[in-house]
Structures are given as structure tokens and as C-alpha cells.
Amino acid sequence: ARPPGLASPVVMTDHLEDQAMEIEALESILMDDMSLVDGAEAIPGATHAPCYQIVVSPLGDGEDEDADDESQIARLGLVFSHTPSYPDEVPLLKCRSVHGLFDAELVAVHAALTCAAETSVGCPMIYDLTQVAKEWMRDRAGVVDVVEETPEQIASRLEEEAEARLRAMRATGTPVTPETWRAWEERFEAEETLARLSKAA
Q: Where do the RWD domain residues begin and end (predicted)?
């Protein structure tokens, strides 16, 4: 009989496969933002699996960085290591400042990541945790997401703007210029002519 608390070899194998597949997927998505770390950058007590660091920026692809804004050039190092039973338990996590983060901030983001990890037990979660860290960094930097409009939303917005302009014009009237006066005069004369013709008929 297997001693209590000792995982089945089949389950262990499944966990190892899940972990290997997750690392492979993360490397293909994150590329240079993810790397192996050891020594002082690693997580103390991480003996089951290597430690990886994901460098998290507050900015997304295509967003221009303001080099004078310290909050935008800050970088978080999200260090993780799989445990033997991951993803059926939370991974080992560590937050370090690659650039510009204070100790109290690292404690805060670590708490947010731990909370997110606890709600994700049972599924590979490292990429999701990276997104949590990203959102935390964006909030810290005050970066506002640009919402992409659908063609329908653009059409609706333009229609609303046109109606608003029309309402404003009606409220203020049409400014009189030589051009608008001539146009009014021609329209008035045409209407008068039509009125005379209809009476004559």
C-alpha cells in the first residue's frame, strides 16, 4: 500500500506533463520576457522545478513608452516555480523589482497574485497571473486601455455627433454670410414662384 499523502505515480506524471506543456507555451508567447533564473533571483526552497522570471511591463504591444515617466519604465519580475502537484496547488511565487518598484509595492502585487492563484487551482495559471500582474502595473502607471470600436459603434457615434451638431445649429441659428444670404434669397424666390404658380393653377 502507498503511504498516505503520497501522490500516485500516474498523477505525478500527469502533473509533469502539464507543467512541461505550460512552460513550452509560455516560452512561445512571452519569448524574451521569460527566462530561467537562479541564485538570488530564484525562489528559496524551490527544488522540484526550475525558477523562471517573467518581466512585466505596464505597457502593451504598440504602446509608446515615455522615458521620463518612472511609472512607465518600471518593470516587475514575476518569478515562479512549479510545485510537485501544480496545477492542483498554487505555484511558488516571488515578486522582485527589475526596475523602479518599492518593497511595499512588491508585497501588494504578490498578495494580488496569490489571491488570483488560489482561485485558479486546478488549471495552468501562470499566463493568467502574468495578466494580473500586467493589470496591476498598468493601474500603477495610470495607463488607460484604448477601447477598439466596432464599425457599428463608429457609425452610431458619428450619427450621434451629427445629431448633436444639428441640435446646436438649430439652437444658435445659422450665421448670416453673403453666401448664406444668397442661398436663402434664391430659395425664398423659388418658393414664391412656386406659390404663384400653384395659385395660378
A: 21-140
Residue 80: enclosing H or E segment and its boundaries? Answer: strand 75-81
d(CA 156, CA 161): 9
As a whole number of angstroms, the distance between CA 189 and CA 50 comes to 88
pTM for this predicted structure: 0.66
Among 52, 49, 48, CA closest to 31: 52
**Is 198 a residue whose pLDDT tops 90?**
no
Domains along the chain with CATH numbers: 9-141 (3.10.110.10), 152-200 (no CATH)
Please answer whether residues 52 and 35 qualify as being in contact, where contact means their C-beta atoms are separated by less than 8 angstroms. yes
Whether 85 and 142 have beta carbons less than 8 Å apart is answered as: no
What separation in angstroms does the CA of 151 have from each of 14, 44, 52?
45, 52, 42
**Cα–Cα separations (whole angstroms), residue 125 to 78, 114, 170:** 13, 11, 57
**Which residue from 12, 82, 14, 10 is spatially nearest to 52, judged by alpha carbons?**
82
**pLDDT per residue over 152-169, tens digit each?**
777 777 778 777 767 766
